[in-house]
């Protein structure tokens, strides 16, 4: 280590960086004002415009703080996506790039007191893969966009597979139904031979009711008697009306019954 180390490009770069970081302290986020040094910053804080800004901040400090935090995070991740999308990179490297923009949201205006705290937050919320090494924190951007696309693809694949599986199952079920039907065949034909008998019985009862209503034959069973009573009542009422209408009404009623019988 010689005296000339002080003038090496690396040493100069380090001093510039340090100065840059030092300057961050003299930045007023509310006024977006960069001051040259401590003295300049003190002067700025005494100014009327700064006092006005601080009043606004005082009215809703939480909202303003979370607003800056959100913006800081968003811009930081944007930079990660733009410059380090597919690489594992030291958090300090990204941060130095980030603060290169004079009007970046300054970290001391956010909810995070240190870069480490912010990096841990990124890891905790799954926005970056983070790991602590002897050389400091390293972060890897998690590409939500391509991850989403990948997941979407996998989902579609799964759906297709499910559909194929469902079709197979349906075919299998159909086969089983057909088999079962073949086995059932003899039983069903027996049932079929029984059915016409019940139909005939139904027809017979229909005929009986028909006769009771039409001809006034005495029929067994309460229901047919009731039907006759209703009919007689109707007849009495109809007598008051003219005969022709009554007859045609009867005809129609009979025709209706005949039609029902045929069915
Ligand atoms: Zn200010």
UniProtKB/TrEMBL annotation:
InterPro entries: C2H2-Znf_KIN17, DNA/RNA-bd_Kin17_WH-like_dom, KIN17-like, KIN17_WH-like_sf, Znf_C2H2_sf
One Gene Ontology biological process: DNA replication
Positions of the DNA/RNA-binding protein Kin17 WH-like domain: 52-178
Superkingdom of the organism of origin: Eukaryota
Alphabetized UniProt keyword annotations: Coiled coil, Metal-binding, Zinc, Zinc-finger
Pfam families cross-referenced by the UniProt entry: C2H2-zf_KIN17, WH_KIN17
Coiled coil: 154-190
A GO cellular component annotation in the UniProt record: nucleus
Keyword flag Cell inner membrane: no
Keyword ATP-binding: no
Family to which this protein belongs: Belongs to the KIN17 family.
Protein name (record): KIN17-like protein
Organism, as annotated: Durio zibethinus (Durian)
Organism ancestry: Eukaryota, Viridiplantae, Streptophyta, Embryophyta, Tracheophyta
């Amino acid at each position: 280590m010689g005296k000339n180390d002080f003038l090496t490009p690396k040493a100069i770069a380090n001093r510039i960086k340090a100065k840059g970081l030092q300057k961050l302290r003299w930045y007023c986020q509310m006024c977006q004002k960069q001051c040259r040094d401590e003295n300049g910053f003190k002067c700025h804080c005494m100014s009327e415009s700064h006092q006005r800004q601080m009043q606004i901040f005082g009215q809703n400090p939480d909202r303003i703080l979370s607003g800056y935090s959100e913006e800081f995070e968003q811009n930081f991740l944007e930079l990660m996506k733009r410059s380090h999308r597919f690489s594992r990179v030291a958090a300090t490297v990204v941060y130095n790039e980030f603060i290169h923009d004079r009007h970046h949201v300054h970290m001391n205006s956010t909810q995070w007191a240190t870069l480490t705290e912010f990096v841990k937050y990124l890891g905790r919320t799954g926005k970056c893969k983070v790991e602590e090494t002897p050389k400091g924190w390293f972060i890897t951007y998690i590409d939500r966009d391509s991850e989403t696309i990948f997941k979407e693809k996998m989902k579609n694949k799964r759906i297709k597979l499910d559909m194929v599986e469902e079709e197979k199952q349906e075919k299998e079920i159909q086969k089983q139904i057909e088999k079962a039907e073949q086995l059932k065949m003899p039983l069903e034909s027996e049932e079929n031979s029984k059915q016409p008998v019940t139909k005939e019985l139904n027809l017979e009862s229909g005929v009986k009711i028909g006769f009771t209503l039409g001809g006034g034959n005495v029929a067994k069973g309460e229901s047919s008697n009731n039907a006759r009573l209703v009919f007689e009542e109707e007849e009495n009422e109809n007598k008051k009306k003219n005969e022709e209408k009554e007859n045609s009404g009867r005809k129609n009623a009979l025709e209706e019954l005949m039609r029902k019988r045929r069915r």
